[in-house]
């Protein structure tokens, strides 16, 4: 009989733990979904601004996030969606007006959920519908051969990070690409595109003209495919892919708070 061993080194990094702010004197709440290889840390600044405004929020940790790439490799898009739905249901039990905010892959989850559960509105931060690297669409085809492929150097350098939290996260996630989880990401994007015309609610969209990951063509896709076009599209100029926590974070937070309180 084949023996099964439990990993004893699997733990969530402190900065990647989920967090929330759940006051009782408001009916507004925001569900914030982070991206692929990201963590709840991505929303730290925006969450702080929402809290000052008395707006409830929940930032769940998606399965495989905040531990290491081997853990992420064992999760699927269904795992990510299941956790997002659970967080939605938890908020819905206490708040009647909920906005779902999705960053990068979290934007795909937000769009897919919105087609079914109908939140009050969506805030999409560089949603990964159209990515810069066109060859990524072929990743699912090579997934069966993932164990035979050489490790791909991503170009990430520890010395480029500004703090130890980012360096720790990078050592666990950004030094290599994982074919299995990346394939799940690609399939999630494909599935999301097919149901965009079911979404009929207010949408606030943020994209960055310097984003090396998500293409500005995402705006064209959303304007064409959504049943209701985004009410407002903001093109940022000072950040890259780090839309919620980068150089334009004050602009993003101001616009999101105005959107929610309007």
Notes on the protein architecture:
The chain is built from 9 helices and 7 strands. It has 262 residues and is of the alpha/beta class. The protein has one domain (14-136, 189-261): Alpha/Beta hydrolase fold, catalytic domain (Rossmann fold), CATH 3.40.50. Strand 2, helix 1 and strand 3 form a beta-alpha-beta unit. The protein is globular, with a radius of gyration of 18 Å.
Task: Please describe the topology of this protein.
Elements: E1 19-21, E2 28-33, H1 44-52, E3 56-59, H2 69-73, H3 77-92, E4 97-103, H4 105-117, E5 121-125, H5 139-142, H6 164-173, H7 179-194, E6 203-208, H8 217-225, E7 232-236, H9 249-261
Parallel strand pairs: 2-3, 2-4, 4-5, 5-6, 6-7
Antiparallel strand pairs: 1-3
Helix pairs in contact: 1-9, 4-7
